[in-house]
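Below is how a single chain appears once it has passed through the pipeline. First comes the sequence as given, then the structure the pipeline wrote out for it. We keep one example in the README because the format questions we get most often are answered faster by looking than by reading.
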Amino acid sequence: MKKYSKYIVILFIGLFLGRFIYKDIASSKTNQTPKNEELKTQKWTCSMHPQIMQSEPGDCPICGMELIPAETTNTGDNVSINQFKLTKNAMALANIETTIVKKGGNTSNGLVLSGKIQENEKATAVQTSYFNGRIEKLYINSEGDKVSKGQLLALIYSPELVTAQEELLTALSMKTTQPNLYNAVKNKLRIWKLSENQINKIETTKKVLMNFPVYANVSGIVTAKLVEEGTSVKEGTPLLKISNLTTVWAEFDAYEKQLSSIKKGDEISITTNADPSKEIKATISFIDPVLNTSTRTTTVRAELNNKNEALKPGMFVQGTLNSAKKTAENSLLTIPKSAVLWTGKRSVVYIKEKSEEPVFEMREITLGNVIGNMYEVLQGLNENDEIVTNGTFTVDAAAQLQGKKSMMNKMGEMQMTDNENHSEKEKAMNMSSETLKIEVSPKFKQQLQVVFTNYIQLKDALVNDNPKKAQETAKVLLNSLNKVDMKLLTEEKSHKTWMDIKTELVKSTNKILSESTIKSQRNEFIHLSNNFIKVVKIFGVNQKVYKQFCPMAANNKGAFWLSTEEKIMNPYFGASMLHCGSVEETIE
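Resulting structure:
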């Protein structure tokens, strides 16, 4: 009996211990399951390039650094497939600002046109020679000289005129017997524009003039000197162009899509680069009925009073069409230029949804005219929509990192393969670096200055319509980019920003180097310039830089470039539209 009792006690002890051991194993298995699942969904990223996102550990394909586990994000947010959230703290740090869309927006300017001061052709005369001869003496030294009506301009030797004067003296002696012959010779001299006083002087002195004087027919400024002393001239040869500059024309280029906003008689406010603080009021007096098919522009003209001669022909001017301003304020839906991102043929903005937390979504829009610092919106937005107007690139980068629809990703992460998504994310981050000022070492800035100088040389080659020179300067630019020492950037932010932008710069420069046609080179120069604008704004160069814009480039979508000169020299069209464009921003 004792023997059986012993076995029963051992059995109970075994069952008791087994229960606890089994419980621990089950608990261990339960705890291990989520970890295994977590490992399956773990993503790996680069601390210097957070746009890199891989499903397995390894090295960063950009800088070679070892990847680290990415932070997991909450996918249970109540947002649609193309919406994404940003924390209020992130918005504050990135200085993201939004604006409510209104009709007319905050337009401080009307429709802005660029143009030049031109001579008033109605008040311009061409002084010509009325007989054959040779310029013996010219009394006008240079263009810009003032002349008065009746002023001596030149002395011309004319064998024909010498002969005609001798005929006059012969006919004078037969005046009573052959009056018809005398009158015929005298009329011949009148046709050659000899005055009655000059003819009477010849008759009185009975001396032949060897060098005949030419007097000014009008008063004004010599705007073209067409002959020099010793020049042989024929009847009708232009000698001088004389313009009366007490009135001048302000001529503007209006693009095809702007014509609906311009009417003859509209008031226009004009400012010059020489004195931008002074505003000149005028009215549109002429709109060219013929469109220039190469530039797709029409000349719009206003006549200006210029008694003090402050307006010089050739001056660059800007005209603000006040009637277009009133139209915009009353009926047009407009948004600030800073709200719009461009990618190829698309223009996009970011909408902020009306919710407690900041929720954003990209939206494609169709733009119309440029009205001051605003764009007219034709499609895609409604009044009272709230859009991002500052920090737009930062918001786009956030969308790209979260796999949402963005500037470079039309469909969103859910409709792309892993490889496509990785590639598009990288592009978007390269395109979407924050344009915040970053302090760098003087040595790095010196190296950057060399790169920027090479960019300007490439721009000049495109301005001069020289594709071979563009290839040569692209090669020089590529070498200077590769010589920039990234070790000089010791901070994570500066290092990452430069590497992202440099990737795009090298890519665009290589494409320009490989292209032999100037059209293809100019298309890639758009992307190159967009990234150089970010370089100049973020890191700075040791000089003043002008950010310039041509609305006709990129199939009328418009494109920017940088210049060290304020004068517009268009790299996208060269000689065909050399001065098309405007200065959008001065970067100190």
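The chain has six domains: 2-41, 42-72, 84-104+332-431, 111-120+245-329, 124-243, 442-587.

See the next section for the split statistics.
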